[in-house]
Amino acid sequence: MPGITLCSDDRGMTETTIALITGANKGIGYEIAAGLGARGLTVGVGARDDQRRDAAVAKLRAAGVDAFGVPLDVTDDESVTAAAKLVEDRFGRLDVLVNNAGITGGMPQEPTRVDPAIIRTVVETNVIGVIRVTNALLPLLRRSSAPRIVNMSSSVGSLTRQSGPGGATTTGPVAMAYPPSKTFLNAVTLQYVKELAGTNILINMACPGFVATDLNGFRGVRTPEQGAATAIRLATLPDNGPTGGFFEDAGDVPW
Ligand SMILES: NC(=O)c1ccc[n+]([C@@H]2O[C@H](COP(=O)([O-])OP(=O)(O)OC[C@H]3O[C@@H](n4cnc5c(N)ncnc54)[C@H](OP(=O)(O)O)[C@@H]3O)[C@@H](O)[C@H]2O)c1
């Protein structure tokens, strides 16, 4: 049911709420789109591949979600600029941005043998990509009465968990690119929180848990739907909700 719909979500809004999710063609991002759509939000499916994006939009629409496709490669300036223009031309603003797209860079990534090119590639997507997309969409988010930004992080980016008892075994493999990229993302997100303090923009980080997706060869133990839950909650926070937090289903993730 594409087009403008009236909805009321947890934020008490009674106008259509527009969301954009990056990397929404599959995995956790798709389920975030499905979950927000089921709550009545209009969802932009950000995806870099035309066929995968069209298929996801069609599947969401078949499920009754007001979904639209947004060609979007988070590593490409032109693509991100065009994505922001598409949203602006169609809606004039954005209410919710979920920076979900991410890569591991492939394993193994032992610190003593890693190819620096892998680190650059992962940081380009998981960190610079988030900055690129956020900065392109911020002018549209500023026009919203209740803007929300959710950055998809991971508890493997928690230095407390990495360094705590059993950290090396409980927080994933020793890896030089992916976990540090999420630590970097958390640090970057906090800088946005500081600059945007005093505005109505709530920015938080979500950890989905260990979810069975392409990212880990489907070795995760949670479903993508379960993995989407925290991001959906943070995307639909009420105006008095938290900002600058790092959350998983069970509550705060330690830094
Ligand atoms: N799975 C887990 O256990 C887990 C745990 C903690 C955090 N996370 C985080 O959750 C997020 C989603 O991961 P997932 O598990 O759902 O992985 P996934 O199934 O591999 O999905 C990743 C998504 O990101 C997209 N993507 C990758 N590079 C992109 C780019 N340059 N531009 C646009 N889109 C791009 C992919 O698109 P293509 O289909 O085109 O490749 C895909 O849609 C990631 O940020 C990940 O780090 C996952």
TrEMBL record:
> What SUPFAM superfamilies does the entry give?
NAD(P)-binding Rossmann-fold domains
What superkingdom heads the lineage?
Bacteria
Q: Which InterPro entries match?
A: CBR1-like, NAD(P)-bd_dom_sf, SDR_fam
User: Gene3D superfamilies from the entry?
Assistant: NAD(P)-binding Rossmann-like Domain
Question: Which keywords, in A-to-Z order, does the entry hold?
Answer: NADP, Oxidoreductase
Q: Which Pfam families match?
A: adh_short
PANTHER family per record: (+)-NEOMENTHOL DEHYDROGENASE, SHORT-CHAIN DEHYDROGENASE_REDUCTASE
- Its family? Belongs to the short-chain dehydrogenases/reductases (SDR) family.
Q: What is this protein called?
A: Dehydrogenase
Q: Which organism is it from?
A: Winogradskya humida
